[in-house]
Specification:
Elements: E1 9-13, H1 18-29, E2 33-38, H2 41-55, E3 59-63, H3 69-81, E4 85-90, H4 105-133, E5 136-141, H5 154-173, E6 179-184, E7 188-189, H6 193-196, E8 209-210, H7 212-224, E9 229-230, H8 237-250
Parallel strand pairs: 1-2, 1-4, 2-3, 4-5, 5-6, 6-9, 7-8
Helix pairs in contact: 1-2, 1-7, 3-4, 4-5
């Protein structure tokens, strides 16, 4: 995704603040028109006005709560029908504070609806539209807890593991169709998600906390390098390759006609 080729529209969800707002700014700087999606229409419009003035791009605001079925369908249909959209940043998500036994059914449903259902529906719409056009870029924002689920609570960690798996699977399904797919796995990033989930980022070791601008810049660099999975804080790419190699080594023995000897 080179700077010179970015002349069409990027759809960014969760764009009113944090990671989504920074992606919007960076993509506008690269020359993209924008379609910004989030619940807070006023914050979206303020950001849109700023980006239009600063970068001279067209910015449209689409206020939508992706947990609500009607709003999700509205964004999904726009993505399927609007062929000017060539980039999707599937960023909208929420976190929880507390164990699975402690959180409410409503909290669980909200995380699943936004972090899994909405992400999947929009990824599906993007895949269909992009495959038909033979071009497009889909960026799914996951988390390092997809690889280290014990670091955080069960619902959020599982939802981000789903996003990683979805992205890896989509990469295979969309192979040779001219579509770039990327999963971004941030570590702890200084955004409003902590405050909204009842956590205090200032209580976390500052050596573990990355500023949001640096995280997004690293993620976009990974995209430019055609990475399927980008872990912004991982010093050695070889460590990820070793992880994949170890996983692949399991492959021949994951499904066999008889149980392993240790179970007999």
């Amino acid at each position: 995704m080179s700077n010179s080729s970015l002349t069409t529209t990027a759809l960014v969800t969760g764009a009113s603040s944090g990671i989504g707002a920074v992606y919007a700014e960076r993509l506008a700087a690269r020359g993209h028109d924008l379609l910004l999606v989030a619940r807070d229409g006023q914050r979206l419009q303020a950001l849109a006005n700023e980006l239009q003035a600063r970068h001279g791009v067209n910015v449209e605001v689409l206020a939508a709560d992706l947990v609500e079925a009607a709003d999700l369908a509205r964004v999904e249909n726009r993505l399927r029908d609007d062929h000017s959209i060539t980039v999707v940043v599937n960023n909208a998500g929420i976190a929880l504070h507390g164990t699975l036994a402690e959180v409410t059914a409503q909290q669980i449903d909200a995380v699943v609806a936004l972090n899994i259902v909405a992400v999947t529906r929009l990824a599906s719409a993007a895949a269909a539209q992009f495959a038909n056009a033979g071009r497009g870029t889909l960026i799914n924002i996951a988390s390092v807890v997809a690889l280290a689920p014990e670091m955080f609570n069960a619902v959020y960690s599982a939802s981000k593991a789903y996003v990683l798996s979805l992205t890896q699977t989509l990469s295979g399904e969309l192979k040779d169709k001219g579509i770039q797919v990327q999963a971004v796995l941030p570590g702890v990033t200084r955004t409003e998600i902590f405050e909204r989930s009842g956590l205090d980022v200032n209580q976390i070791d500052p050596q573990m906390v990355m500023e949001v601008g640096e995280m997004v810049d690293a993620a976009l660099s990974g995209l430019d390098q055609n990475e399927l999975v980008t872990i912004p804080s991982l010093p050695q790419a070889a460590d990820w390759q070793a992880y994949i190699k170890a996983r692949d080594a399991l492959g021949p023995n994951l499904s066999r006609s008889s149980a392993a000897a240790r179970y007999k």
